[in-house]
Amino acid sequence: MDIVAVAAQKGGVGKTTTTYHLTRAAARAGLRVLAVDADPQGNLTSALAAEPPQPEALGVADTLNPDAEHRYALDDVIVPAVWEGVDLAPTSGEALTYIEDELTQKPKTPENSSRLKANLATMADRYDLVIIDCPPNRGALTVNALVAATQVLVVTMPALYAANGVAHIFSSIQEVQKELNPELKNRGVLLNLWEPSTIASREWRLWLAETYGDQLLEPYIPKREAVKTAQEAGMGLDELPKTEELVRFYDAHLQRLLPSRVGRN
Ligand code: ADP
Ligand code: MG
């Protein structure tokens, strides 16, 4: 089972969008996928849940509760997603914000940082791919995701704060590699919202290329209405017209992440 964390220190760069379209690509490749919404904003849940979650429904927060008495198994919270072969560990409401605060106040012990990892270990026979949408910070939930993951994909966009944020998340990745998860592979930086027609976009791309070398991954994902529309409609890009190139781009990123599971075609 491959576990991919999609992370960035910044919001609005396209973590959820990337997680969503990579999930679609994996489902089309016939993989059994568990998408984990580890962001209290719950955007991935809104996009992927087959049924809108009830306010009282269990979610990822209930599986991470530091208080063992109130902790649920991942199995109790998983729901079907909109696509065949895809399940979702959902998040809705304030519960995950509360758990994030709770975990942040606890000492950063391996136990507190490894709860998601321990939960996912029970899923190894059920899924080929677990993909985790991280919150836009380097807090306890992101650390849990990085400790659980076999690989991490960083997302950024060609703009000042986003590009500078890459260094911060890279340093968190290095810390986790050093202390808690030496197996974690940093698979590089996916450049999203690429707008080759603007000077600022071109300059930030150049800066990222100079700073990160071949860790800046190609293809870049352009800013396109279809990327957003598909997600808002709960559809795959492959179901929209004139999106062949975008579909190929996400397929290429998935293939790079999972070369032994996804064939070239
Ligand atoms: P994050 O999860 O990092 O906060 P989102 O994935 O929610 O970011 O993306 C932020 C906004 O930008 C969303 O409205 C999303 O639909 C839009 N968006 C993301 N990537 C693209 C893209 N490549 N082209 C057009 N819109 C995009
Ligand atoms: Mg998001």
From TrEMBL:
Family matches, as SUPFAM superfamilies: P-loop containing nucleoside triphosphate hydrolases
Database matches in Gene3D superfamilies: P-loop containing nucleotide triphosphate hydrolases
Occurrences of domain AAA (ranges): 1-185
InterPro entries noted in UniProt: AAA_dom (IPR025669), DNA_Partitioning_ATPase (IPR050678), P-loop_NTPase (IPR027417)
Listed CDD domains: ParAB_family
Pfam families hit by this protein: AAA_31
Protein name: ParA family protein
